[in-house]
Write a structure and sequence with these properties.
The complex is a heterotetramer of chains A (230), B (173), C (105) and D (385). Chain A is of the alpha+beta class and 230 residues long. Helix content of chain A is 42%, strand content 13%. With 173 residues, chain B is mostly helical. Chain B has 2 domains: 81 residues, Four Helix Bundle (Hemerythrin (Met), subunit A), CATH 1.20.120; 48 residues. Classes of the chains: A alpha+beta (230), B mainly alpha (173), C mainly alpha (105), D mainly alpha (385).
Chain lengths: 230, 173, 105, 385
């Protein structure tokens, strides 16, 4: 039979081991230190933050890959404006609960990666001070064009215009997405590939059915033509 | 000299505390005034060098009786007395008259007339002597007191708790 | 002039009469218990005063008797409040004016 | 007004008023760092010297909390009892500070200025200790009532019920030491334990120390017994409606009460100010005293990092069905073995008495532990129809 209060002593032994261990094995500690920014003045608006993904990558990889902050637009590998996924269908603008997305559709169409002419957003602004990072835009987007970024260096002294993120600051490449949220990015790409394959299969099946129906119609037409000639 | 001032200060606090405890409409204010009264009395006991009694007074009255009164008030009605109902009983004038009569009867003839000992013996307050006294001549009283307290404990719980029996009759009737 | 027995007795008498006043004039049973406490404490004060100015204080009669009265008072408050709660549960009021079921009509 | 009297009182009380609140600041930092380390994080390490980036292990955190508390807006609910709402935190602090004076702390500078070393050389110090620490219960009730909010009143009533029912085992376990020493004076109790024969080394002393420590945890609403102020319970119990400096006063009061009660535990059981090298430097006794207090507080923090919170009925059942009978039996045992050891002065009787009482206490505790489990019956309402 365990001695009286054995459970309490076992529990206390665990916490004691944890307490002492945290001083010797540094890898136990889950808090990674926040290194201070350079002394300089904070940029006036979010756009002025360094855009090259190398600089932002240093920030976003310090936090673990579960963290989600504010949305970003995705483009496939290549020139951002050529391979942008967003087609300005404005579903996310309508679905966004705090209405913090503002899209202006472009007038003409440009070729996208699959060669189909598509609209693109001439203007795509997200007001970060209003966005509550609820990820509804990510769920409703049919083209997987908008996903959550985990960049946290966004503070600006200017409260009104400074927190409005323009389209060019939002655009990030797909492999940047792979770097910050590896599992989610992989799952999303897999889903896209699977959807495309399913669509092709469906198209192929539809094509065959159409061909079969055409042949059946052609055979029926020949049969009628034969009856008229008799 | 300091004794004189402390006595008068404590006396005034005690009288005010008692008056507030009795006259306040809001019972909670009354209980806290009563506790100030107990504290003032504990100070007076200290002044009269009855140190152990002051400690027991604080422990028993403020620590236990006060909290008990608070619990009792919480369980009964009309605590804050903000409804317009009258808080004094009907014959309150005669109550005042009786209290004043007792005061006058106590103060004037008995206290003025009696020749009271003025000598002040040196006292070294020691709990040990009190303990020994409690043991040899008063040990029976101590045991009876213990019995009384247990009986009061059981009686209080029974009286306050006695809901079950009546609840059943109320249920069947 | 230093504190004399007379001061304490007068104070004890005044406090006792305030307790009496409370007991006579208040409607609420709990306040009557307050006033009984005040009266008991006034009596304790007189005991200690007489012991302090007595000629053989090492007999410790005053403090001993006060100890017993404090114990009895505590027991009395406990039982008194239990009764008040029982009365409240039965009659739905602690107003002493309304608790007159013994009075014959 | 004799100035000698005032000088003595000031000389004895001002060091307490200076030392213990600063120890309070250090303890809050220590608690947050220790709890963090238990949960595999680092704890505050950014607030070092203000307006610079030198975070010296977060030692500036108590100062930062203090300043924040001073400048936070102090909201008083509209229906609240203004007077009592203000008075409650003050009343929570006064008894905690007052009982510090009863601890037998000999400050070394006493002999230079020939002042009285201990504020109140009271004959019945232990009784005064429990009497005045009972006032804190009152302050909690006043806080609960004054904020005119159902939940804080409930939290206040729970806290009062808990403190009242844990005060009895606290006093009973102190009775054993008083019985052994034969005096209520804190200095005599400390004197009786010099040379390492502390009371905690005898079996009844150990049992009494454990009961005292558990009851002290409940008395200061800490760790497994912090039900009244638990966030997940009734918001924040009795100090829901307090913000700003009054909230800080409550915390100061709680921590100083923690110091005071562990000070008493050290005086009663761990030989106040008794330690090695005392002959060499007598002023070391204050250092030993405060070191032991910090030892007990470290255990309190350790328990806070380990044990989950008790439910109300478990709390009550534990006090009345486990601690109380155990301390009563402990008193009987201590008295019996005290006389047996006096009657037969040889070591045989001492070892025999110790062995018997150890076994008896363990079996008693084990038996009580099994029957004291509270089976939470469905709640049966007595008054609410």
């Amino acid at each position: 039979m365990s001695i009286l209060g054995g459970g309490i002593f076992k529990g206390m032994a665990v916490t004691l081991r944890n307490f002492i261990g945290s001083y010797f094995h540094k890898e136990r500690l889950i808090t990674n230190d926040y290194e201070w920014r350079s002394e300089g003045e904070l940029p006036q608006s979010i756009g002025d933050y360094p855009k090259e993904e190398g600089e932002q990558l240093r920030d976003t990889t310090t936090v673990n890959h579960y963290s989600r902050n504010f949305p970003m637009l995705l483009h496939d590998t290549g020139e951002p404006m050529d391979t942008i996924r967003c087609v300005a269908c404005q579903i996310c603008e309508r679905e966004c609960p705090p209405q913090c997305i503002y899209i202006e559709k472009s007038t003409e169409k440009i070729e996208n990666a699959d060669g189909k002419p598509q609209f693109y957003p001439a203007k795509f602004d997200i007001d970060v001070s209003v966005c509550m990072s609820c990820q509804i835009c990510v769920e409703v987007c049919p083209f997987d064009a908008i996903v959550m970024n985990s960049q946290f260096e966004l503070s600006t002294p200017n409260r009104f215009g400074g927190l409005l993120v323009r389209r060019d600051d939002l655009l990030k490449s797909n492999d940047y997405y792979h770097k910050i949220h590896p599992q989610e990015a992989a799952a999303r790409d897999q889903k896209m590939v699977a959807d495309k394959a399913a669509k092709e299969a469906k198209k192929k099946a539809a094509a065959e059915k159409a061909k079969a129906a055409a042949e059946a119609r052609a055979a029926a037409a020949e049969a009628e033509a034969k009856e008229d000639t008799e | 000299m300091t004794q004189e001032i402390t006595f008068w200060v404590l006396a005034v606090i005690a009288v005010l505390g008692a008056l507030l405890a009795v006259r306040r409409r809001n019972l909670i204010h009354g209980v806290f005034a009563l506790m100030i009264f107990f504290a003032a009395l504990a100070g007076l006991f200290l002044l009269l060098l009855a140190e152990f009694i002051a400690a027991v007074q604080i422990l028993v009255y403020i620590g236990a009786v006060g909290i008990l009164l608070l619990f009792a008030i919480m369980l009964t009605e009309r605590v804050t007395g903000d409804d317009a109902r009258d808080i004094t009983s009907r014959g309150s004038f005669w109550g005042w008259a009786a209290a004043l009569a007792v005061l006058v009867f106590l103060l004037l003839p008995t206290i003025q007339g009696a020749d009271l000992p003025q000598t002040v013996q040196p006292i070294n307050p020691s709990v040990k002597a009190l303990g020994f006294k409690l043991m040899n001549p008063y040990v029976v009283t101590l045991e009876v007191l213990a019995l009384l307290l247990t009986a009061a404990l059981v009686g209080a719980v029974a009286a306050a708790q006695g809901g079950e029996k009546k609840k059943e009759d109320a249920g069947d009737a | 002039m230093p504190v004399t027995l007379e001061h304490c007795l007068i104070l004890g008498a005044v406090l006792f009469c305030i307790g009496l006043l409370g007991a006579f004039t208040r409607r609420n049973a709990v306040v009557v218990l307050f006033s009984i406490e005040i009266m008991l404490n006034a009596a304790n004060l007189n005991f200690i005063a007489f012991w302090r100015f007595s000629d053989n204080p090492d007999q410790l009669h005053g403090p001993l008797f006060t100890l017993f009265t404090i114990a009895v008072a505590a027991a009395e408050v406990a039982v008194g409040l239990a009764l008040v709660i029982a009365v409240y549960r039965h009659f739905k009021t602690v107003d002493l004016e309304q608790l007159d079921t013994l009075k014959e009509e | 007004m004799s100035f000698e009297l005032i000088k003595d009182i000031l000389l004895a009380t001002v060091p307490l008023l200076v030392i213990f609140p600063s120890l309070f600041a250090f303890t809050t930092w220590m608690e947050r760092k220790a709890l963090a380390r238990i949960q595999n994080r680092i704890g505050p390490n950014k607030t070092g010297i203000p307006c610079t980036r030198i975070g010296l292990f977060g030692l500036g955190q108590p100062a930062a909390d203090g300043i924040k508390m001073i400048f936070k807006e102090d909201i008083v609910p509209r229906g609240a009892d203004k007077l009592f709402h203000l008075l409650a935190p003050i009343l929570a602090l006064i008894p905690a500070m007052l009982i510090l004076c009863f601890l037998p702390l000999e400050f070394p500078w006493g002999k230079f200025i020939s002042g009285k070393v201990q504020a109140f050389m009271l004959d019945s110090a232990v009784i005064f200790f429990f009497a005045i620490s009972g006032l804190a219960t009152l302050a909690i009730f006043m806080a609960g009532w004054a904020s005119r909010n159902k939940y804080s009143l409930l939290g206040g009533m729970r806290a009062v019920a808990q403190m009242v029912s844990y005060e009895i085992p606290l006093v009973l376990s102190a009775v054993i030491v008083v019985m052994m020493v034969g005096s209520l004076n804190a200095k005599e109790i400390a004197g009786a334990q010099t040379g390492f024969n502390w009371f905690v080394f005898s079996p009844w002393g150990l049992a009494a120390f454990i009961v005292f420590f558990i009851a002290a945890l409940a008395e200061t609403n800490r760790s497994p017994f912090d039900l009244p102020e638990a966030e997940s319970e009734i918001i924040a119990g009795y100090f829901t409606e307090y913000s700003g400096f009054k909230f800080a006063l409550f915390f100061l009061g709680e921590y100083i009460a923690m110091f005071a009660i562990s000070g008493l535990a050290v005086t009663l059981f761990l030989g106040a100010g008794d330690g090695p090298f005392l002959a060499a430097a007598p002023w070391l006794s204050v250092v030993w005293f405060i070191a032991k207090i910090f030892g007990l507080i470290a255990v309190m923090i350790w328990l806070r990092g380990t044990l989950p919170r008790l439910r109300v009925d478990q709390l009550m059942a534990f006090a009345w069905k486990f601690l109380l009978p155990l301390s009563i039996v402990n008193i009987l045992l201590a008295g019996l073995s005290h006389h047996v050891i006096d009657a037969y002065p040889g070591p045989v009787a001492k070892v025999g008495a110790w062995a018997v009482s150890l076994v008896l206490l363990y079996m008693m505790a084990w038996g009580l532990n099994n029957i004291s489990r509270s089976t939470a019956k469905p709640r049966e309402y007595l008054y609410a129809e």
